[in-house]
Amino acid sequence: MVLQLSAKVSEEISAYKDIFKREYQFSNAVITRPHLTLMKFFQYDSYEALIVNKLKLLAETVSPFNVQLENFGTFGHTIYAHVKTTHPILEILYHRKEELKPLLCGSKNTFFVSRPHISIARGLQRKQYAIAWEKWQSKKYHANFKTISMILLKRNKDNFAYKEVKTFYFGGLQIPYLQAKCF
Question: Which among 38, 35, 48, 25 has a CA at the least distance from the CA of 124?
Answer without folding.
Answer: 25
